[in-house]
Amino acid sequence: METKIKLRGMTLASLASSLWAISGISGEILFKKFNFSSDWLVSTRTLISGILLFLIVIFIEKKSVLKPLKNKRDCAGIILFGTAGMYLVQYTYFKTIELSNVSFATILQFTAPFFIFIYESIKNKKVPAVSTVILLLMTILGVIFIATKGNFSNLSVSLEALLLGIISAIMIAFYSTYPKKLLKKYGSITVVGWGMIVGSIISNVIHPI
Q1: Please, how many CA atoms are within 13 Å of residue 140, restricted to the half-sphere of its CB?
Q2: Which of 95, 172, 180, 199 could form a disulfide with 112 if both were Cys (CB 3.0 to 4.6 A apart)?
Q3: Residue 39 and residue 207 in contact, taking contact as beta carbons nearer than 8 Å
Q4: CA angle at residue 47 from 46 to 48, to 5 degrees?
Q5: CA torsion, points 15, 13, 194, 83, in degrees to nearest 10?
Q6: Do residues 89 and 171 lie in contact, with contact meaning Cβ atoms separated by under 8 Å?
Q7: Is the pTM of this model over 0.70?
């Protein structure tokens, strides 16, 4: 039973990464070939995704989407998750793609485990193993080589793209670690749905559809 659960988790994680990569490629096509902006894309996708997820909760799961709002602490958590974990993750990722390319943005974002590990080490007051430190240093070195193409005196992408890509990785680390209690209490679709709606409100204030 435990093996099946782990296998299912690994399958879903792989599928999520694949779909996220596909969304990045699709975004780059929209930016480069059709002159879409990252601001508009984030405003649109968060709003539509939030509505679709709410419909799933209401009509398929047959649950109330308003339940998280009845608890002030959980409501504040949803707002924080929607702002940092949903809006900023998507905006910084797609803005990095718009300013550079999908490969660079995706590689930078998937350095998120580096920041998760730092957070967990500080939280648990645990000194990391030497092998882990070596792997983390290799990750940093890899990002440096990608950003400079081996010419350390010059960036191959804009500084803005590099900084936004790093912020994207930090936000995905937050996105992955913060909502654990909310997910257990309300379910992933409800929490992500609210995150999308909160993110869409913020993004539509900045750049309305």
Answers
A1: 8
A2: 172
A3: yes
A4: 95
A5: -110
A6: yes
A7: yes
